[in-house]
Design brief:
The protein is about 25% helix and about 25% strand. The chain is of the alpha/beta class. The strands form eight sheets. An eight-stranded parallel β-barrel has the order 10-13-16-19-20-21-22-23, surrounded by four helices.
Amino acid sequence: MNRVIPGVSLLTDTDIYLFKEGRHFRLYDKLGAHLMEVGGRRGTLFAVWAPNAERVSVIGDFNDWNQNVHVLYPRLDESGIWEGFVPGAHQGQLYKYHVRSKHRMYSTDRADPFARHTEMPPNTSSVIWDLDYQWHDEEWMGERGLRNALHAPLSLYEVHLGSWRRVPEESNRSLTYRELAARLPGYVGEMGFTHVQLLPVMEHPFYGSWGYQTLGYCAPTSRFGRPQDFMSLVDRLHQKGIGVILDWVPSHFPGDGHGLAYFDGTHLYEHEDPRQGYHPDWNSYIFNYGRSEVRSFLISSALFWLDKYHVDGLRMDAVASMLYLDYSRKDGEWVPNRHGGRENLEAIDFLRVLNEAVYANFPDVQTTAEESTAWPMVSRPANMGGLGFGMKWNMGWMHDTLSYMGKDPVHRKHHHNQLTFSIWYSFFENFVLPMSHDEVVYGKGSLLNKMPGDYWQKCANLRLLSGYMYGHPGKKLLFMGSEFGQWAEWSHDQSLQWHLDEQPAHHGIRRWVQDLNRLYRAEPALYELDFEQAGFSWVDCNDAEQSVISFLRKGACTKDLILVAANFTPVPRMNYRIGVPRGGFWREMLNSDAAEYGGSGQGNMGGVEAAPLSCHGHYFSVALTLPPLGVVFLKNQAAKGEAEGGREELLADIPEMPMVDFFLKRLS
């Protein structure tokens, strides 16, 4: 006997129309498992898309996993959706869909593509779950449009939740979401980062994929707790004035038997032709972006995290693999588009619609593309011919910079263009400068271990690298552990090497990053015009022989002007003359060679007076001590009427109040 109550549905005719058009962006409110009451009976309404199924039943704890008890009803509108209300099915019970296909006598048990919660891996069942939660981030949500704006300071701390900290005395287990909520916000706030960017939290069967082999597109991984536990982490971060960016993976998905691949006995979510639907690099499947229902599924997943979890942005992984039909394929292994080209026209259209939907529904968030090619206008609006992202990772800058920094300083003068070339294209896109997890795995070594020289020089080079990044136009991203100079390459199975912070050199590196963040957030010149040519000008980019560069960063207000000078050799440069546009006193705001950071203590005694000697096209100039393997930041005293003082006096000008409040005050 079928105990499913028919005729119960959350779907309207409009929903079905939008679903078929690929324009339904909140399917998570309609499909999946929804707790409700029908005719005075509590239970769960199930709905799943399986158009090529002959029969679909829901199996679970509530029917002893018997496929013959709760058979769902197909809708009569040719949508391919099966649905039915199961009385008594309640919160916390496990379930799957048993799908019998019309094709090849195929049957399978599948997890719910719209499940809100999942069983702890390696188990694979979905869990009936409600997402009720009392949020306490009203202040953040009301102001995050300013905090996430392109003209605001964005300093991202990239985190893998499973390995940020572990509990060695408890079998080296990862922290739970609740434990992270008690520790991560305080640390990130202390370090001065504006946002955390989390490697994918969406449920994934293989922990070693770091989340990039996603299957639970609407479920945070249960490895660290329940959905409300993850909400509490986001909530606490917001209460500390810290934004949350999630990695999201619409480019491919794994072929695990309980997942999306061959869902109803056909290639429903993926392309049937392996030349289009299979990814050789990752042994995974590629979504069929030309299928309207798949587009609705993916865009609904994106909006789900912004809606239900108050997330502040999405970083989309491997966008290049979506844009090119021949990505990582040889001749004959790919299918040209209808014009005979290599561009994936369906994926391009999908990305444009996706970004339009995100910004139309959540105009105060940002989307960011990890896109490694020269595809034009990635971060330009779709109506202008762009892909519609808010920002793009600057992979060219990252590769050139790490290649340059990895060279012995004696050879750097022969590769000077690797430092200067990035400015030629820095304003073609809205760039994020990423020193991400990808650069500290698979034998690449940690950032500290990439640096040449002895122990002191490695630390100095790392401070120089981060200082150069904070001076360069573009938003900032630093992977966890790099802020204190982790020695070991990152491992997802191990905690960061927190004990290193007890050593003066590593503590100095962390203090340097902390002070960089504080200066960065306090000085509009360092962030306000990140994406405009007006925010940057070279002073001297041609001193290859001494491996020195100098440039000016500018804010929208003419008083906001910062001079950045960097010496990429271990030889100090005394009385090094640099042209400046103003006379008066130029105060040394930060110096990576200061003793408190582990440096040699060489610098400019708090600042220098500009002389009326023309240099580098300016009427004034300053004679600086450029410390070995060091970078200095200077600001004209006339800009704020500051008095000369040391580091403690300087940092007193950059308040300890929540930094987001400080820069909001500056913006207003």
